[in-house]
Structure formats: C-alpha cells, structure tokens
Amino acid sequence: MSAVSMTATQIRYVNKSFWRNPASAFFTFAFPLMFLVIFTSLLGHYNVQIGTRTVNSATYYVASMATFAVITACYNNIAIQITFQRDAGVLKRTNGTPLPSSSFLGARMVHALLISVLLVAITAAFGKAFYSASIPTGLTLVRFLIVLVVGAASFCALGLAVTAAIPNAEASAAIVNATILPLLFLSGVFIPFGNSTPSWILWIARVFPVKHFFDGMKAGFLGTPFNWTDTLVVAIWGLAGLLLAIRFFSWEPRTG
Amino acid sequence: MTTLPGGTAAGETTGGVQPAVHVRGLVKSYGGLTAVNGIDLDIHRGEIFALLGPNGAGKTTTVEILEGYRSRDSGEVTVLGWDPARQRAQLKSQIGIVLQSTGVERYLTVAETVRMYAGYYPHPRPVDEVIGLVGLDAKSNSRVNKLSGGQQRRLDVAIALAGDPDLLFLDEPTTGFDPSARRESWDVIKNLATLGKTVLLTTHYMEEAQYLADRVAVISAGQIVAEGDPATLANRELARARVRYRLPAGTAPPPGLAGPAEADGFTEFAPDDVTLALHQLTGWALEQRVSLDGLEVTRPSLEDVYLSLTSDPPGGQAGREEGSTA
Hints:
The complex is a heterodimer of chains A (about 260) and B (about 325).
Chain A: H1 3-19, H2 22-43, E1 47-50, E2 53-56, H3 57-88, H4 90-95, H5 101-131, H6 138-162, H7 169-186, H8 199-207, H9 209-222, H10 228-248
Chain B: E1 21-30, E2 33-43, E3 48-52, H1 59-67, E4 74-79, H2 88-92, E5 95-98, H3 110-118, H4 127-133, H5 149-161, E6 167-171, H6 179-194, E7 198-203, H7 206-212, E8 215-220, E9 223-228, E10 242-246, E11 266-269, H8 274-288, E12 293-298, H9 302-310
Parallel strand pairs in B: 3-7, 3-8, 5-6, 6-7
Antiparallel strand pairs in B: 1-2, 1-4, 8-9, 10-11, 10-12
Helix pairs in contact in B: 3-4, 3-5
C-alpha cells in the first residue's frame, strides 16, 4: 500500500474513533458555540471599532470563536491526544510496525483540519442564524479557506511540537492551556483591543501566530483589510513547529 | 518482494544456517551505567527462546535493541538477516512486537483494530484467522475498551501476529494475569511454534519459561550467566537430590539417613546415592513400623537455579534498564 492510501485509511480509523467518543466529540463542537453565546450575552450588542470600520460585536465574536475553535481542534486536541497515546504506548507500538510515521501523524493532523473546517462552518452558520453575522462569500471565501487551512495545519504542527515539552499525559491539558489561553487574550480574540491597549500586549500579539491567524479570519467575516503577511507569519510558525517536532518528537513515554 | 541482505534469504523459516537472531558482544550504556555488557546470543528459527532476569538486568534493553527501538554502543546484531539499527524499515515488516504496556485505540472493535494493523504489512495474515488464533472470536465486534485485561493482552498478541511475522517478541506477556488467563495465553503462544514462528519471550515467571521455552538464557547485570534447555539449565538435572521427610514425635531417625531436625519436625539430607538411601530409609521405616510423613525427593527447580544465578550480580555494578516500566 502506498503512503497516501495508508494515510487515507488511518484518517478513516481516526474518524471512527473520534465519533465513538460522543462526550469528547460533543464538547469539541459545543465549546465554541457556548462561548459565542456567553460572550455576546455577557457583553451585549455593541459596536467594535476595527481600524476605520465599525462592526457589530456578534460578528466580531463569530470570527473570534471560529479562530478559537480551530486552535482548540488543532493545537489543543493534537497535543493532548498525542501525549495520551504516547503515554499509553500506542505510539511506541505503531513505531514498531511498517506504518510510516508521516502517515500516522499526518492522518491525525488532516483529521483535525477537517474537524476545524466543520467547526468553522457550524460557528458561521450559528452566527448567521442567531446573530445575523455576515459570512464570507466569493473570492473572500477562497482566501478565507486558504487562511483556515494554513492556520489549522500550522496549529497542528505546533501542537505536535509542544508534546516534546509535556512530560506526561496528566500534565498535558495544563501545559496546553497555559501556553494558549494567555495568547488568546493577548491577541484580542476574547476581548477586542481598544485604543488604550498597552504596547507590550500589541508586541506580543505581533510576534506570536494567534493574532495573525485571527486577523486572517476577521478579514473573512468582517471585511477588514486582508494581508498575506499574516498568513505567512502563521505558516512560518507552523513550519518551525514541524521542524521542532521532527527534531524532538518522542514515540515513547517519558520516564522519570 | 523485499531485497535480500548479504545474499541470504531473509524470509527463510527452516532451521537453515542462519539463526533468526544473532548477537555478538552487545554493549549498551546509559550515561555511566552499563545496561548490557557484552552479550552473545543465538536464537534458532522456529524456537521459543526465553530471556530471564530480574528487573534492571538488561532484558528490556537487549530486546529493544533487537526490535530496533534502541541503538547499541557496540557489538554485532542481526535479526532475520537485517541489522536493526540500519535496516529497521525492512525488519519491521517481518517482526511482531508485544510490548509490556498495552495501548490501542480504545474505541475501535477487536476486528477493526486487527484489520488496521494488518493493513500496515505487505503480506498480512487473514484477520479472522488471527482473531481465532488468540481465541477472541466471540469478542470480534466488541470495542477494545470493553475487554478484560487478559483479553486485551491476547489482542496485543493478535496485533503482533497481524502482519504474519517470522519472529515474534513477547515482553512479559502474562504479567498481572490470574492463573487461568495465564494458562490460556500459554496455549496461544505454544500454538505459534506450530506455525513455524520464532518467539523471543522475556519473563520473570519460571513456570512460564519452563512450560513454553525450548531454550532459556538468564541475564544478570547486563551479562548472560547461563543458557540452555530449561530442564538442564546450569546442570540442575545433575545436582544432588535431597530427601526430605518427617518422623512421628519421639522417634529417632536412622543414623546417616537424616539431617538436622527442623522446627516443623522435618529433616532433609543429600545422599550420594539416592536409590540406595531411599531403599535403606524405607526398609528401616517398614522394619520399625513408623511412617515417613511427607516423604519427597527434590532437585533444584528452575527457580532455585535462577535465584542462585541472579542473587549475586558479577562486577557489583547493577545494570539499569531505561524505559522499563516494571
């Protein structure tokens, strides 16, 4: 069997496993919608100033939660799932078979990417139905999908890289949240940046990939200016993650 | 068709010239600790070979070098004609591995799991047949997370067999089993030999080695301290037999046919000639009309031999097994 068909077969098994754990699947999908409802209810409908444009907060949060959903499905889920499989011995067992490592890991990344697309579609549909949020169409949609795929792949690669820094499965959720939650706040995903946002926060947002990815997603939903540089920064982070993963990834449980 | 290394048939299963596993002068250190210190090993095709040794003796390190999981510092290693360090890809499709830990995708069924793993190999064995071999037919459509510990272990064996390997590694396959589950697993492993598979087993259960293995090697502090047929390991069949019995209270034992009396009334001695000593002892007992309670003749068990071989590690420096979970 070729590596491509082996990867395709892997994706099918990963997908089967995913849907057979209904609690996990349900919350993967419910989480961003829940946050969308909470944020818009809590903060009410108001206008957000983005550059020269003024947008409705509901539309802003549709973009926010779509971003959040992709990062959760890719970065968080890949890091936590792979660490658990590493500690349970699944990775070591697989590493003793002829299945190419790229097929095993690639299948998990592609699956996370497909789940991300589904999540974004659901979030967008929900936003449209309940908050009359605008959704990308035409050329914007094509551009939006490229941003989405590059972002999802990059956050998968970063999730894979971070497993090298996670000593055991019990610590995985804590480490994943500690690395991503502050960044989501510091990138204006949960609370929009205002005029008085301190410059150190803006600097952090500029360096890390979350804000750049978010800006790409916002361009799709809010019609804000689109910048390929944002996608490039995200891709560079993804590539760095991939290289780190190739160098430091462990197929065996950590001992001691 | 795989390429053949060194002009020898890699897939050859008959007992030919080339052993399934060939090791000379294997050395592996972690930091300053020598885990494996000059091991020589030959495992013939179609044989069940058991590697015995206490935790930290270098068992797992040795096996993981053969499986290709670990690199070696020095020494010569060929497994089915391949060098596991440099030709791991070729080797992988011809071996099956049962590791100590038992991780699988929990939400797939038994049949799906075996089919998934079978798909990784160039010439897999039919899925139903593999499931039948390990006796999981009735559980074929059960989710893996619904299996008992013993059934999961048998699934591990099924996964290792899925690719129809020539050589099977079993790392402590029955640790934590209840006696009946252990019996069942032994039968499964015995069956493998009839399929012409070579099996390398590690265990610290002596009955397991005795029941399953054609040959055993005892490893202690990174070195092989004894190797051979489990029935004759370290010449235990030639060791002096001991005669043990108990006399009714107040009866003096016959001179020359007893050792010091033990607290429970038993006495034990090692005669030069067991046949003669037994004849004299039983003759005396009949004459005196006394009963010899609990009379038995024993020779050192495999466990006795093992304990005496491993109780005092040579060199004083205990090896360490990195990654050993036990």
